[in-house]
Please model this.
Amino acid sequence: MTDTCIAPLNDADLVLCDFDGTISVIDTGLLVAQTFGLEPFQVIEQRWRRGEISSRECLRDQWAVVDTTREDFWELVAHLEVDPAFPDLVALARARRARFVILSDGLDLYIEQTLNRLGSDDIEFRANHAAIRGGHVAMEFPHSVAECPDCGNCKTRWLFELRPGSARTIYIGDGHSDVCAARYADVVFAKEDLARIYRERGLGFLPFTHLGEVVALLEDGSSARG
Model:
């Protein structure tokens, strides 16, 4: 690892942040599967990890087994736990006039509801669309691109579309869906799977375990190990 100097967040920055496992404390799909004992979730997940199906197919098939007629499902979605420092990150971006956009390969269903609950409904986000049909979640992929047949919502596509006019692109993420887009960012904050993959590939990043650490570095600027 090498020392990396991080300049304070400013109005020329674009901040792109993953949602599941980064803003939310746990991946929402995983939380739903664990809470309601949905064994097919893990079976489908392993098929994706073995490369047998695409991320898009994985998402579609996993969410299709969720029974949305259950009141406890909606209760879970309505109280999805987020990183305690997320409001601080949003407040910092607003104070410094940096553009802040959430990029997710998850569902607008719970992202929009969570942002509304936190009083952050003006935050931009790009995610897959979820429609409720026959008591189940039907996935729609309005942001998919032919050049990226795997992901439902191509984050790399958004990085290139959103970046013009920004002096620095900052990416914050935790998982496989962040790997491709993050490599084009100027600064990468990574944890869990994203951090592991970046270490294995010898790519530079700033490790974090919670968003408070990201806020601290972006607020004042400092030298960090990454």
Q: What stands out?
A: The chain is about 40% helix and 20% strand. Residues 39-49 form the longest helix (11 residues). Residues 3-24+82-127+142-225 form a domain with the Rossmann fold fold (CATH 3.40.50.1000). Residues 54 and 149 are 8 Å apart (CA to CA).
